[in-house]
Design brief:
alpha+beta; two-stranded antiparallel ribbon; 6 helices; 41% helix; elongated
Length: 197
């Protein structure tokens, strides 16, 4: 159970907002006890606005909500780390983060995973992802197998473009399979971390 020390910050504590998938820091806000309670109860990040002197749910006017996945407290109990799945840009300027829009291209598969999860939750006519999901788990698994074989074949040649395209196809279909099974990439990462121990 979280027990932040709000007295240390005169009733307000900083809340660092981090993308659950990419691990990018999105923004910083402040919370009082009431805004933290509302955040926990509703699953959307709510701050205490120092300028407006009231509770403020991020996205209440823009629709760019921050959906809570996990809340942690630091060792001094005076700073919150809130991992979220953003619905749209986190910054009012339209960028993903308030600290510039730099992407970590080597590890950020969150954009693709979010798109797949969005299609699963809100099907879109003509979407390949929805067509695949609608065919059922066996078809999705079959596609992963086909793409894996195609990648192995291209790995033995020296055509960089074909190899990278097949690697991309496999990664996409693998993420669709995880979504179809009700899992996320972080579930797999947790298993890998446990093995590393």
């Amino acid at each position: 159970m979280l027990q932040p020390n709000f007295e240390k910050g005169n009733g307000l504590l900083p809340a660092i907002i981090q993308d659950f998938h990419s691990q990018k820091v999105l923004m910083l806000g402040y919370m009082n006890e009431e805004s933290l309670e509302k955040t926990r109860n509703e699953g959307k990040v709510t701050f205490y606005s120092r300028s407006k002197q009231r509770l403020w749910t991020k996205g209440e006017t823009s629709g760019n909500f921050l959906m809570v996945k996990h809340i942690e407290l630091d060792c001094d109990k005076d700073t919150l780390l809130i991992q979220v799945i953003p619905v749209g840009p986190a910054c009012h300027t339209g960028t993903d983060t308030c600290f510039g829009d730099k992407e970590n291209k080597s590890t950020d598969l969150g954009f693709l995973e979010r798109t797949i999860q969005e299609r699963k939750a809100n099907p879109k006519p003509g979407s390949y992802t929805n067509d695949l999901l609608n065919k059922g788990i066996n078809k999705v698994a079959q596609k992963v197998g086909e793409e894996a074989v195609e990648l192995v074949i291209e790995a033995t040649d020296n055509n960089e473009e074909l190899f990278l395209n097949e690697a991309s196809d496999l990664m996409y279909h693998y993420l669709v399979l995880l979504a179809a099974k009700g899992y996320e990439l972080n579930d797999v990462i947790d298993v890998l971390k446990e093995r590393h121990k």
